[in-house]
From TrEMBL:
<dbReference type="Pfam" id="PF15702">
    <property type="entry name" value="HPS6"/>
</dbReference>
<feature type="domain" description="BLOC-2 complex member HPS6 N-terminal">
    <location>
        <begin position="1"/>
        <end position="258"/>
    </location>
</feature>
<dbReference type="GO" id="GO:0072657">
    <property type="term" value="P:protein localization to membrane"/>
</dbReference>
<dbReference type="InterPro" id="IPR046823">
    <property type="entry name" value="HPS6_N"/>
</dbReference>
<feature type="domain" description="BLOC-2 complex member HPS6 C-terminal">
    <location>
        <begin position="276"/>
        <end position="665"/>
    </location>
</feature>
<dbReference type="InterPro" id="IPR017218">
    <property type="entry name" value="BLOC-2_complex_Hps6_subunit"/>
</dbReference>
<dbReference type="Pfam" id="PF20468">
    <property type="entry name" value="HPS6_C"/>
</dbReference>
<protein>
    <submittedName>
        <fullName>Hermansky-Pudlak syndrome 6 protein</fullName>
    </submittedName>
</protein>
<dbReference type="GO" id="GO:0032418">
    <property type="term" value="P:lysosome localization"/>
</dbReference>
<dbReference type="InterPro" id="IPR046822">
    <property type="entry name" value="HPS6_C"/>
</dbReference>
<dbReference type="GO" id="GO:0031084">
    <property type="term" value="C:BLOC-2 complex"/>
</dbReference>
<dbReference type="GO" id="GO:0005765">
    <property type="term" value="C:lysosomal membrane"/>
</dbReference>
Length: 667
């Protein structure tokens, strides 16, 4: 219908092009003007551009060219509905073939990601000056240089907007638009040759893979192989079937064929995969506890007759789950008794499955409320089971995916609320408290982004109800003091104190503010630990909040004589250096410990006097100079105080004046 010139330069050559919305995105080669340029410059002779395509009454018109990336290596561009993936060509430099780029047109953001290693970095391109490829990588060269090159055999974009990648080892992975990667499926496990084609196509939630005349149908969400068919011919191509996600149209040399997905007749019947999951889980469980080196398989477990627990559970699920009338019919007597014991758990499972079905089928306006209910059930279920590393990782993903729902679920499980005095109270059972404070700790879960449950809950407090966090830490400390002895290494306080763990969560916040300083103070003070109180006191001194300094000193000096002495000597040293504490001396002097003498006080003051640059004079004009008059009330108070030795001998001094009788002498 119409021919348009896409590139402006006469020497430019298009390498790859895709259509994204109403725009065209392409990678073009711009040969250097100098024919004798070195290889490093020639490698970065490509440019990624975009241009709107406008269809009007007068015909088709191209908009102005916008450069996404210049001075770049060769890229293959693949478009999803909202993003453009930039894959490095096979002949690229070793460094540039270790990552791929994702262009977000709406926000003008470019994401660098090495999905297999979890490296993700995004940058918003505000002007064309920031579009230079080498400048873009300037802050990441050190990290990227140590990565392995991408292993890509085949790539395509799924209908959900993700990028499907097939490695040469046959692993199918999905790269999401945010740069993260998840594993979907493994093909036969045979290494793929460079020339062997692999075709990928998504139909709703089903991924179709075609390799060497074999058709694999895989559930994208769970990664389960739904069906495997050997086709009669090897040269087969997928056809587009818009609107029809229940069948696949295949183009072959002999014609066009339609392949329909098999559907279960009654969706209410229990899924066979559920029974399989029982045996798979039992395999893992018994294998971990097995002393022999032989591999335990599902087939051995079913036929062996040694392990009865998975067989019993599978029988109950097959015969009893989802049946409306007489669920125990056809079961052995022992299984029927077990069914009556498990009835509550089965009801809970069925309600959970029903809720999941409601989430899938619900309109968009009701999804949020269903998700909140689902998250609450899941958090409650995990809190009432053993929290191992897998359960902890699962809770981390729930809190990350549904933060608001997870916060509501936490409040519900711990029964957190304010009483009439405005104080936070929790009516959780001791078992739930032990799950919150126990479980795998940071040194056990490693550095893979998973944090313990206590830290997860603290992060939720910081996000949704920060003023409750100090009270929550205080509540947990009260529970710890009741449940574990102070020196117990099994308890949470035997490892890292709870207030320090909460401070660690506060330190991991992306943005710091004045409210964070206040939160740090509250967390230090709520612990009532001597070191934490002194740390809070020094923080208040650094912030020059003298009124609060004196209030904290007056409140916490009553906890112990040793802490009282530390607080008083700290404030006396501050008093010697400046005059900020002068208005509060009437409150400060009564805190003086009984064992401090006048000479101790004078020694401490002289040690902390500020050093003057000039020679000392009797009458200085400086207003911040310490005078004896300011110290006089304290010294008088110490001198007039009865001596400790006088108190020790007070009984003897108050005895009658005549001496006691002389004891009899022995010759």
């Amino acid at each position: 219908l119409e021919t348009l010139e896409l590139c402006q330069g006469a020497r430019a050559r298009i390498i790859s092009v895709c259509s994204q919305g109403s725009s065209l995105v392409w990678c073009e080669e711009r040969p250097p003007l100098d024919a004798h340029s070195d290889m490093s410059k020639c490698a970065f002779r490509f440019c990624v551009c975009t241009r709107t395509l406008e269809v009007g009454e007068q015909g088709v018109r191209l908009g102005t060219i916008r450069i996404i990336l210049h001075n770049s290596p060769e890229y293959q561009v693949l478009a999803s509905p909202q993003h453009v993936f930039l894959l490095p060509a096979a002949a690229s430099f070793a460094t540039t073939s270790k990552f791929l780029l994702i262009w977000h047109p709406e926000t003008a953001k470019l994401t660098i990601t090495a999905p297999a290693t979890g490296f993700v970095r995004s940058k918003t391109l505000h002007s064309s000056n920031e579009s230079d490829f080498r400048k873009l990588l300037l802050g990441s060269v050190g990290l990227l240089s140590g990565l392995a090159p991408l292993d890509i055999h085949t790539s395509t974009v799924s209908n959900s907007g993700g990028l499907l990648l097939v490695s040469t080892k046959g692993a199918v992975n999905m790269v999401e638009p945010d740069g993260t990667q998840r594993h979907v499926f493994d093909l036969e496990g045979v290494a793929l040759a460079h020339g062997s084609p692999v075709q990928l196509k998504t139909f709703g939630s089903i991924l179709a893979c075609l390799l060497a005349g074999v058709l694999y149908l895989v559930n994208q969400n769970s990664g389960r192989l739904l069906e495997k068919r050997i086709l009669g011919m090897k040269e087969v191509h997928f056809l587009e079937s818009p609107g029809d996600e229940d069948s696949i149209q295949l183009l072959t040399q002999t014609g066009i064929y339609s392949f329909s997905f098999s559907k279960p007749e009654d969706s209410n019947k229990p899924e066979p995969c559920l029974v399989e999951m029982v045996f798979e889980e039992a395999c893992r469980y018994y294998q971990r506890r097995s002393l022999s080196g032989s591999k335990l398989t599902v087939e051995k477990l079913k036929k062996g007759g040694v392990f009865q627990a998975p067989v019993a559970l599978a029988a109950i699920l097959q015969h009893s789950l989802h049946q409306k009338q007489k669920p125990a019919r056809g079961l052995q007597d022992t299984y029927a008794k077990l069914l009556s014991t498990m009835s509550l758990e089965l009801q809970s499972y069925m309600s959970l499955e029903l809720l999941k079905a409601c989430v899938v089928c619900a309109p968009e306006s009701e999804v949020e409320s269903y998700c909140e209910e689902l998250v609450e059930q899941e958090v409650s279920r995990v809190l009432h089971s053993d929290i191992d590393k897998d359960n902890l990782a699962y809770l981390n993903s729930v809190f990350a995916s549904f933060p608001k729902a997870a916060w509501k679920a936490t409040r519900s499980c711990l029964q957190l609320q304010q009483n009439g005095d405005g104080l936070l109270v929790a009516r959780a059972t001791p078992e739930v408290w032990k799950k919150v404070l126990g479980g795998p700790q940071q040194e056990e879960v490693g550095q893979n982004g998973v944090v313990p449950l206590f830290e997860l809950i603290c992060a939720s407090f910081l996000r949704f109800k920060p003023k409750w966090l100090p009270s929550f830490v205080e509540l947990t400390q009260q529970y710890v003091s009741i449940s574990w002895s102070y020196s117990s290494k099994e308890g949470p306080e035997g490892r890292v104190p709870l207030y320090k763990r909460a401070l660690g969560v506060l330190a991991r916040k992306n943005k710091c503010s004045e409210a964070d300083d206040e939160m740090e103070l509250e967390l230090l003070l709520c612990s009532k630990r001597p070191k934490a109180v002194l740390q809070a006191l020094h923080l208040l001194i650094r912030l020059k909040q003298w009124q609060r300094v004196v209030e904290v000193a007056e409140k916490f000096s009553k906890l112990s004589p040793l802490l009282n002495k530390e607080i008083f000597t700290t404030l006396l040293a501050e008093f010697a250096q400046h005059r900020e504490l002068d208005p509060y001396l009437d409150t400060l002097w009564p805190l003086c410990p009984a064992e401090l003498t006048a000479s101790d006080i004078l020694t401490l003051v002289l040690q902390h006097l500020p050093r003057s640059q000039e020679d000392p004079v009797p009458f200085s004009s400086e207003r911040n100079q310490l005078t004896v008059g300011l110290l006089k009330p304290l010294l008088q108070r110490v001198v007039q105080r009865p001596c400790v030795q006088d108190e020790m001998y007070s009984d003897a001094l108050q005895s009658p004046t005549f001496p006691p009788p002389t004891p009899p002498r022995e010759h």
